[in-house]
Write a structure and sequence with these properties.
32% of the residues lie in helices and 15% in strands. The radius of gyration is 20 Å and the shape is globular. The protein has 14 helices and 15 strands. The protein is α/β, with parallel strands linked by helices and 360 residues long. It has helices at 38-49, 53-61, 75-83, 89-95, 100-106, 112-121, 139-146, 158-166, 205-216, 241-245, 256-261, 314-323, 332-336, 344-350, and strands at residues 11-12, 17-19, 24-28, 31-32, 130-133, 151-155, 174-176, 192-196, 220-227, 253-254, 276-281, 299-300, 304-305, 308-309, 353-354. Helix 1 runs antiparallel to helix 2 (53-61). 46% of the residues are buried. The chain starts with 10 loop residues before the first strand and ends in a 6-residue tail after the last strand. The strands form four sheets. Strands 7-6-5-8-9-11-10 form a seven-stranded mixed sheet, sandwiched between helices. The chain has a four-stranded antiparallel sheet with strand order 1-2-3-4, with helices on one face.
Amino acid sequence: MISPRTGEVLRPEGDHFLTDGTDRWPVVDGIPYLRDKEAVRAAAAAALDAGDMAAARRQLLADQDRFSPTPPPGADAIDRAVDRPELSLREAMQLLNYGAVGDYFAYRWCSPTFTGGLHMLERTPHHLPVIEVACGIGHFLHALEAAGRRTVGVDIVWSKLWLARRYLGVRGPLICGDIERGPVLATRKPHTVFCHDALYFFEHKGPALAHMRKLSGGGSVAVGHVHTRSSGHAAGFAGERADYTKLTGAFVRDDADYRLGWYDRESDTGHPAPIAVGWIENETDHRPIDWTRDGTSLQSNPLLTENGVSWPSDGWRKEYTEDGAGLGEYTLEKLAATPAPASSREAFRSRHLLNLPARW
């Protein structure tokens, strides 16, 4: 890992700090805070120096990104999220005041954009470790590790990484840092760098992509579900397809290519104004990945009920409808009315079954 201020390699200092000899960066629950946000860094460091791990954790769990639609959680709510190991993921996100973002994370497995990301990963080199930038609470890291891949997760919000470790059981390194400011870590061999449903949030996309390419070490960079101005999603700094084309030498596809590719369907790639786009630098031929290997425990899709689809919210339903165009019999409405395939692998592909965390 490298300092976001100096670019120097960071080394351990005791159990709870990394340092380049000048600055000290907190490490709580094994997750380093390398975001250059001085007030939070200093407060967490002071708490660790005083031997108060709980106070340091509160500082990091309350930290948010610039687009958070809700205020930070209070100390009491944070303590309840930490001290009650029996809580579900959804209950923990509610205590951490995730709001509508909590719905997005809780039901991301059910979204066409998630399977679009899985399909995109099937079109990158299978032998390379994966570094996911803006990994959130680790949906793809969880899936990749279940398929036997090595992973690293990077996100700007420390609490998301804490949830990834505690609830999704992500085993690979997790790093809180800002990819727009720098590459966060140095790599010595090729990797696949994956960034999904996030690039439109970056104000400085050119530097962020340059840092991703540096992280890849000559491997592959896959960027998926990048909203355009045609999308109903308002947050972030969305551009048009032509804007994204200028950022990469790869072919910028309609993101529907990936979302429908999971089901072996073709999209209308000639659509003049796609709602989202994606691309892969150093793409390989498509080869399916066994996402359910090693006896992965699958659960029924929680949105499919005897009475139809149990929508989490009107907002989630609206976004699903936009992203699910062209799915045909694979929409949630159709799946709720049809029995699951007998094969667990096929039921996973149809989305009747999902690889949810145990404490979902």
